[in-house]
Design brief:
This protein has helices at residues 28-43, 62-76, 89-98, and strands spanning 4-6, 11-14, 17-21, 25-26, 49-53, 59-60, 82-85, 105-107. With 108 residues, it is α/β, with parallel strands linked by helices. The strands form 2 sheets. The protein has a 6-stranded mixed beta sheet with strand order 1-2-3-5-7-8.
């Protein structure tokens, strides 16, 4: 049976996967909060993997790339993975140009 804990509208833990619903715009204004909360759940040993949901996201700058890569560095130390879902073509192109597709799996 899957264990599911809804923390708030942005974060949920489902079967040791931290689900992060990304905001409409991912920039330096909101990156620190997302990063700190995600790290808290990872370091509390509540999640082995992180899934970023970009369904509502229309803009992401380098701060968003930093969020993804930083969480990858943390969970990969323990064999975890980082995935991105609901990534539109524009964001996918940003991720590809940044070279993070080697580390972050993008699911269609």
């Amino acid at each position: 049976m899957k264990e599911s804990v809804m923390i708030d509208s942005t974060f949920a833990i489902i079967d040791r996967h931290l689900m992060v619903k990304m905001p409409r715009e991912v920039d330096h204004h909101n990156a620190a909060g997302i990063r700190e909360q995600a790290d808290f759940y990872i370091m509390e040993d509540a999640a082995d993997h992180v899934i970023f949901d970009f369904e509502s996201t229309v803009f992401m700058d380098s701060s968003g790339i930093g969020i993804l890569m930083g969480r990858y560095k943390k969970v990969s130390l323990f064999g975890g993975r980082v995935l991105a879902i609901h990534v539109n073509d524009r964001l996918k192109k940003v991720m590809q140009m940044a070279g993070i597709c080697e580390f972050i799996e993008i699911l269609d």
